[in-house]
Amino acid sequence: MSDDELKAIVLRAIGDIAPEADLAHLDPTVDVREQLDIDSMDSLNIMIGIHKATGVDIPEADYPLMNTLNACVVYLAKKLKSR
Questions:
Q1: Domains of the chain in sequence order
Q2: How many CB atoms lie within 10 A of CB 19?
Q3: Which of 34, 56, 68, 83 has a CA-to-CA distance to 44 between 20 and 30 Å?
Q4: pTM above 0.70, yes or no
Q5: Which of 71, 53, 65 is nearest to 8 (CA)?
Q6: Percentage of residues in the chain having pLDDT higher than 70
Q7: In angstroms, how far is CA 6 from the centroid of its own chain?
Q8: DSSP 22-71
């Protein structure tokens, strides 16, 4: 998957949990939870959505590595490449 495809998957997962969020103006370098005021349960549901869309297992210990949109894309690309 390309970085753009991964970005679209992450944005879709966020949009499913926070439909009111203005994803077009999401800063890809800033913590998503802080930008959108997402709680830990919503964050977990986003990770589940990403897992379902990509098939990538995301251990809870890795959640802090996926705090920004850019970090999510890098993490997923690395995991998919190592398959």
A1: 3-81 (1.10.1200.10)
A2: 8
A3: 83
A4: yes
A5: 53
A6: 100
A7: 9
A8: -GGG--TTS-HHHHHT--HHHHHHHHHHHHHHH-----GGGGGGG-SHHH
